[in-house]
Amino acid sequence: MSLVLDPAAQDLLFREARTANTFTDEPVTEEQVQAIYDLVKYGPTAFNQSPLRVTLVRSPEARERLVGLMAEGNQPKTAKAPLVAILSADNEFHEELPALFPHFPQAKDAFFSERPVREQAALLNGALQAGYFLVGVRAAGLSAGPMTGFDFAAVQKEFLDDDHTPLMIVNIGKPGEDAWFPRSPRLTYDEVLTTV
Length: 196
Fold this sequence. Notes:
By secondary structure, the chain is α+β, with helices and mostly antiparallel strands. The protein is 41% helix and 15% strand. The protein has nine helices and four strands, in the order ααβααβαααβαβα. α1 crosses α7.
């Protein structure tokens, strides 16, 4: 095998990674969330844009508002998950570039002065960081239930602002009873890779 990562870590982060649909009542602490962020913040993005923003839905009132904006099949698990995170892309990420990309602070204006360009970059790099976030949740010994079945415009209006685009909503916690659907098939190496 040519992978250098310990096989147990490979299993934890990838082979055994599943979308959790039920969770125990064990809370997800602020320390756990901090540890997840402190790991995944190092994942690369173009120009070190780092557009991902995470809104933790902790209060019962906010949870109730969010559940009402979820697709019907996602409502029960979102209502019961120990923690729910709204992952969004900050379309004004360029304001941080002088600090995040110090060897070329002019990138802010040279490449990202126009809003449509920023929105496209934020969407791509924010989605990349969302993937890192899911792996980070696994690294913390927790399970994630990422979902895109919700009213995007309503979530933006209720929880974000015009400068933040929702990417996904993630239920987080220890998996509960019957948490997993059967493992779905994956494409093979030859179906995915092409050499030119």
